[in-house]
Design goal:
Helix content is about 45%, strand content about 15%. It is of the alpha/beta class. The chain has a single domain, classed as 2-enoyl-CoA Hydratase, Chain A, domain 1, CATH 3.90.226.10. This is ClpP/crotonase.
Length: about 280
């Protein structure tokens, strides 16, 4: 396999590099702020994850055949566009997605939720290198990674936030399940979900939303993410990393498989009107 790899091949929105024998770096450059839509997820992110897993599994099988206990190491770093230090991702491409009348019933169960499950149970350690703002669906994306390293925001203001409560959007079951799984503290859940609090990097570190904050530019954040990934890369050698996550996050797997109805303030008001 020859790197770098671009997905899709004709107009890449994602670039994958393989800097060392055990590391992969996935850079998102869908515009300046990497907003999620069906094309970005199914045309770029999902095939990129497939390519990385395929390569790692080839290495892992070779190590198993040779009975090499040190073979099959691996980790993945995911970062926002490297040429800027403003956005990791700005969440869903909301303005365009809601123009589709089938958005509520199709996008989450058929596109976004399978992507969350894929990332959440990825077979090697994943580290989100949060090099800028991390809003809404991007925060869920980062939480689905095993570890998070964030810029400390010293060069520009940087926030992590679930802001749906501020613009009148409900939460799908899958998003709520990810927050419950990754943020067990009910008071922090309240700040995230019901207050739409904008966590500074220091606040995000203090409440456990991120594992490290780093002063410096995107490359410094990536360097720390690589350090974190390397420290746990040996956990992939027995092939159980992703298997264990499937059971550890079983509630997320279950809820994301039955996300059909997207509740919103208008549907809630109509239901209340009929019963009150």
């Amino acid at each position: 396999m020859t790197y770098p790899l671009g997905f899709p091949a004709d107009k890449p929105l994602v670039t994958v590099t393989h800097p060392t024998l055990i590391s992969w770096v996935l850079e998102m450059h869908h515009g300046e702020d990497a907003r999620f839509n069906e094309h970005f997820i199914n045309g770029a992110l999902m095939p990129a994850l497939d390519a990385i897993e395929r390569h790692w599994r080839e290495d892992w099988r070779t190590a198993q055949a040779k009975k090499d206990k040190n073979g099959g190491k691996g980790f993945l770093v995911i970062v926002g566009k490297r040429a800027q230090n403003k956005f990791f991702s700005n969440g869903l491409d909301w303005d365009n997605l809601v123009k589709d009348p089938t958005f509520a019933t199709n996008f989450f169960p058929l596109v976004f939720n399978p992507f969350l499950r894929r990332l959440l149970t990825f077979p090697i350690p994943t580290v989100a290198a949060v090099n800028g703002h991390c809003f809404a669906a991007a925060m869920i994306f980062a939480l689905c990674c095993d570890y998070r390293v964030m810029t400390d925001g010293s060069s520009r203001n940087t926030w992590m936030c679930m802001n749906e409560v501020h613009f009148g959007a409900g939460w799908p079951l899958a998003i709520a399940a990810v927050v419950r799984a990754k943020v067990p503290n009910a008071l922090v859940q309240r700040k995230i979900a019901l207050e739409g609090h904008r966590f500074t990097p220091k606040e995000a570190l203090d409440v456990g939303l991120v594992d490290h904050i780093v002063q410096g530019d995107t490359e410094t954040v990536i360097a720390k993410a690589v350090e974190v990934g390397k420290s746990v890369s040996q956990m992939a050698t027995m092939g159980a990393w992703g298997v264990i996550k499937k059971t550890l996050y079983q509630d997320v797997m279950d809820y994301s498989s039955r996300d059909v109805i997207q509740h919103n303030p208008l549907s809630e008001d109509a239901a209340a009107k009929s019963r009150l």
